[in-house]
């Protein structure tokens, strides 16, 4: 087994692009920028955000994907990232697979690793990624720009990641007959989410507000509405879902699609007269975009079915890592960022 | 007990300075910069980098200080930071004290918190800070600029933090009579290190290379020499130490001063004809700077005593979090970054 510095060197040292100073000094140096630098940071904790036996390649992908998704939600172009690794042991095969998944996604987005920190942990693996992107400040997709009359859109399909997580957790009440087949159909959404970076860039100057769905559609849309001082009407039956989620009984379908976290799709708003341009932007980004409601004046999120009737028993509004009432420690749950 | 978002809001939401977008969107936005952006990231793990019962105010200070120290070693001016917190519970008093120590130092350096991530951990507290600074790329103090004939300098005094840590760990062999008195005299260096940001700025255009001492003088100076392709001669008895360390038997004094980590002083090199300007820069920064040796052509670090004789039994060259030989898990040990 090699020493720490040798392991870092072997798996994580890459040549920095021109204009940057990468791994190997007290700080990395990012090139001067005429645009604003978008910054997002995420902690991923074993047993909380991923299973101890997760495929390390998938973990490498996902740990960067959730950060790229934050850049996407801001309309920012990825420029670089730094990585913190707290590891219980130096496992060469694990590090190699983790780095493989990480760099494959980083390379696909032209987002080099420029620095990091590795330390030993006596209590499981913790990953910390801070990512940088570039966006003209006035083009950034903030949460606060939604206006009454705007359409509400969502990219991709919702619910698969939540359904897969429930099956992996062995929740007995999930109403599917062939659990293995449904898991096989949905697991990729949980473990290999595709950050919608190209869509975020295409929505610059077009979307009035945007957020990525990490905690569930209702909660994350709620953040847009709160920041924008608006309410909304959402048609639950318009929310796009996969065949696996569509096959669930209606309450379960809504639970996964409206409340399920870890989706990493974009929820965004745009003026109604921009529908054709939004559709064109989504097509250029290679992802579906579906209209699911409208921003309204006032407060409150009204969720209705296809017949316009209020939907009962909505999923709880997101997950709070520190519930205010005492209770048994939760198991593996979606993250809050 | 309040929920997570309420706790974050209460303790960690500050108004971002003009030109920045702070906590509350998918990303923070840093203003465009004509200079390079220096970036450093550190993970601090409970039981590894700090004791479970550490004063949370001191932890707040130190968790930011170690990152500011990386900026200092680069000659960068702090601009902002982001914070990741993995916590076993939401303890209002702990968070309040932690935030108090953190923001007191952040405010002293004009370095606002602009974003973060909070999550629950089932296994102790982990802190992740990524800090940003500003420096013209050509003025950055890199490790690679030392040249034969340059003086080697160190700021402040070395050894106190290492001695305090050994006493807190209860190492029985530390040869001090009044352990409580010595701990009282040295503990502040361990828990409240002062990052040498002003010195780093004053050394722009003056120092040929710099590093901050986190792993011990010999190891960190070794990084400068390796990056610069040089060797050096170091006079062990010229390394400045406090009265507490000076009172130790000589081998212990050298162990603490040459091998002790967590010092967060700057080790730097500068041309011999710049001695007066270095002294002036240190005086302006309000910290002592002491010449301790000279860079030489070739490889290797020769450590001698005041009489010019080689020093035997040098402290091991720094700590490797993942030793290549199996052994009992180490306890609390200095970090590697």
Automatic annotation (TrEMBL), chains A, B:
It is an enzyme of class 2 (transferase). Mg(2+) 1 binds at residues 41-42, 117. Residues 185-304 form the PurM-like C-terminal domain. ATP binds at residues 116-117, 143, 214. The keyword Glycosyltransferase does not apply. It comes from the Bacteria. Pathway: Cofactor biosynthesis; thiamine diphosphate biosynthesis; thiamine diphosphate from thiamine phosphate: step 1/1. SUPFAM superfamilies: PurM C-terminal domain-like, PurM N-terminal domain-like. Substrate binds at residues 49, 262, 319. It catalyses: thiamine phosphate + ATP = thiamine diphosphate + ADP. Mg(2+) 3 binds at residues 26, 70, 212. GO terms for biological process: thiamine biosynthetic process; thiamine diphosphate biosynthetic process. One of its GO terms (molecular function) is thiamine-phosphate kinase activity. Its EC number is 2.7.4.16. Mg(2+) 2 binds at residues 42, 70. The keyword Secreted does not apply. Keywords: ATP-binding, Kinase, Magnesium, Metal-binding, Nucleotide-binding, Thiamine biosynthesis, Transferase. Mg(2+) 4 binds at residues 26, 40, 70. Belongs to the thiamine-monophosphate kinase family. NCBIfam families: thiL. Reaction mechanism of ThiL seems to utilize a direct, inline transfer of the gamma-phosphate of ATP to TMP rather than a phosphorylated enzyme intermediate. Catalyzes the ATP-dependent phosphorylation of thiamine-monophosphate (TMP) to form thiamine-pyrophosphate (TPP), the active form of vitamin B1. This is Thiamine-monophosphate kinase.
């Amino acid at each position: 087994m090699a020493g720490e510095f040798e392991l870092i060197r072997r798996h994580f040292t890459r040549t920095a692009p021109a204009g940057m100073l990468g791994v190997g000094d007290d700080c990395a140096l990012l090139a001067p920028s005429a645009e604003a630098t978008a910054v997002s940071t995420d902690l991923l904790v074993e047993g909380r955000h991923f299973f101890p036996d997760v495929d390390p390649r998938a973990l490498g992908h996902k740990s960067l994907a959730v950060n790229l998704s934050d850049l996407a939600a801001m309309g920012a172009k990825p420029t670089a990232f730094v990585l913190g690794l707290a590891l219980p042991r130096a496992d060469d095969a694990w590090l190699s697979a983790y780095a493989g998944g990480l760099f494959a996604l980083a390379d696909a987005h032209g987002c080099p690793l420029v620095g990091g920190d590795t330390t030993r942990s006596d209590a499981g693996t913790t990953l910390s990624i801070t990512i940088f992107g570039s966006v003209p400040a006035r083009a950034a997709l903030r949460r606060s720009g939604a206006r009454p009359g705007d359409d509400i859109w969502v990219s991709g399909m919702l619910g698969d990641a939540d359904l897969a997580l429930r099956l992996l957790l062995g929740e007995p009440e999930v109403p599917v007959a062939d659990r293995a087949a449904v898991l096989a159909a949905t697991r990729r959404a949980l473990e290999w989410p595709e950050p919608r970076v190209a869509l975020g860039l295409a929505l610059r100057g077009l979307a009035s507000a945007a957020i990525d769905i990490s905690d569930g559609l209702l909660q994350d849309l709620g953040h847009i509405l709160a920041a924008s001082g608006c309410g909304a009407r959402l048609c639950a039956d318009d929310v796009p879902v996969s065949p696996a989620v569509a096959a669930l009984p209606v309450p379960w379908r809504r639970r996964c699609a409206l409340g399920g976290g870890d989706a990493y799709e974009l929820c965004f708003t745009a003026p109604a007269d921009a529908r054709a341009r939004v559709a064109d932007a989504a097509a250029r980004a290679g992802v579906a975009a579906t209209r699911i409601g409208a921003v309204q004046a006032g407060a409150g999120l009204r969720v209705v079915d296809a017949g316009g009737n209020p939907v009962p028993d909505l999923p709880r509004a997101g997950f709070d890592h520190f519930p205010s009432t005492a209770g048994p420690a939760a198991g593996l749950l979606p993250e809050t960022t």
